[in-house]
């Protein structure tokens, strides 16, 4: 096993990530306007942008889900307990002592166990919470005739906003964690260029070399 | 189509009927030739008929050609008699309308309403004040509203609705009679103008079919004793409104008359403030088909918003099962430069100056520079408003009144009428109202609203002549035939008037932010969740979570920095 600079993020993977970043930021901005946190943009324009961007993001998610399952990429996100303690201990203690990150990335397992658990929760709980409540919110006109329509709208609205802030909190921690270890730039670069240093078995190295996916 | 066809048929029949007596009179034996007997009388009967060389008239009958209408007429009733000689059924139709009976049976609530029965927050009651109040009645000589108008077809005032000469009017204190020569000194018309002698013959010959906006407006724009005093959305500004005041009635807009929406059938008009059509009672009809409801949706449907952006349009259409059209499209009432009375405090009426003379103050200046009364010894204190933001409430159109003799709770504001409706129900919408704030007399012992006698020069009791509440209330209660303890005070009241006129152009409609903002227009309204009107619980919890994440990250980062510095410091040491 040796570390090599390998192309781990395909073009679609990067496009997925960065368009998700862009649309989630736009959704935060317009959503905050709708909640009344800032007055920039008229309400109607904010509704329009929020709706269009949300639908576009849903479409992207549909493609991404298809892509994850056809390429087997979904396996990256399956949570596991192995190494969890070490990583948790590192963030809570070791990082202050200047210790090295205990996790060594592999091609099959880019994410450390804590990271994988966080992404899993994001994808399986927060994202469904936001889009299911969002679609229910958006389609209010189709069900508001039901008894207690306004009551359910209020429940949905509260749930949607809470889920949005949970995602925002994830983003804060996600961005902060990029500053740990080799530094922010080092961590962001792979998602731009596609290449990252990972441990490869000789067999894997030979295979990736053949494919032209190893940089050094 | 059906409506106009009926109308044409009615006029053709009227013309034929009108010609028959003339034919009978004209056909004297000397003039009847022996040969061709059928053709000549017909020609004589048609002697007034227009020929192809004449201009084509709007209507099939030119009333100025009728001998019956040449006059002279000594009274309005004589004109009505002439009308009835052809339109034999017209008075009977009118006498079956609320315009005549001033009585409205609300089947849903079981209440008997109408001006003859209810009380309001303006001059209170008609009883004992008749000749002043009934000056706007569509009849002649209703001097006692305790009794219905007599079944006398000649007492119907045809001219007030059908006059096209523009010079017919009613005097403000003659129980519906017009001012005739010689006009009494100081007499006024129902619009408050100095009265002039009406030429009844000229008016009779001018008549036309659908009432114009001045026919309706001369009474309805001046309800409550002056221009726009009562309704707030019905003022003289609507005689010739600019487009931004009323997009339907403006000559630069649709140029509607009142009757375009308030369609009539047998002299009964659609539209009611007792049972308002807040939803279209016939949603299955195609837009633009003949309608018998004065509802916006009759023409506009309940999904009226289209492009330019279909998403926005769809979102706006989402609102129509919750919010009445009027709520957004009448952003404010009393527009167009005529203020409406918003507060009327009767409790201060009756004060006189040191010489025992009545006092008047004109503390409100209307946007056209006109000064309006803010105190009168006759009426107490007033407040006025222009471009007034409506009061919003869930409404199914059903009004329940606090009727005379109904017990009130004087510790609370008494609602003269209560707005019916349930939040979120299919029959209810959020609807705009003018909320009239009043202070009115009531019987302290019996806890009922008190009838007041305000008008009646020379009767010794009228408030407007003698400035004495004791006498006024005693006279009013006695006249109405109800018990009166003799002890009175004043109670605060609200009266709600549906706002449905003065629809603004689409560009002037309320914006999303008008309601979807903290402190927006729906802020005080129960039973509706308005996104953006508050940071909700989910928002507060979420913000707390977000801030904790932010602080956590900052704290973590700060600890790392501190430890790094320590370490570096150690190296240097």
From TrEMBL, chain A:
It comes from the Bacteria. The keyword rRNA-binding does not apply. Gene3D superfamilies: Transmembrane di-heme cytochromes, Chain C. Keywords: Cell membrane, Membrane, Transmembrane, Transmembrane helix. Residues 8-194 form the Cytochrome b561 bacterial/Ni-hydrogenase domain. It is a multi-pass membrane protein. Signal peptide: none annotated. InterPro entries: Cyt_b561_bac/Ni-Hgenase (IPR011577), Di-haem_cyt_TM (IPR016174), Hydrogenase_cytochrome (IPR051542). The chain crosses the membrane at residues 21-41, 47-70, 116-143, 155-179. It is found in: Cell membrane. PANTHER family: NI/FE-HYDROGENASE 1 B-TYPE CYTOCHROME SUBUNIT, NI_FE-HYDROGENASE 1 B-TYPE CYTOCHROME SUBUNIT-RELATED. This is Cytochrome B. The lineage of its organism: Bacteria, Pseudomonadati, Pseudomonadota, Alphaproteobacteria, Rhodobacterales.
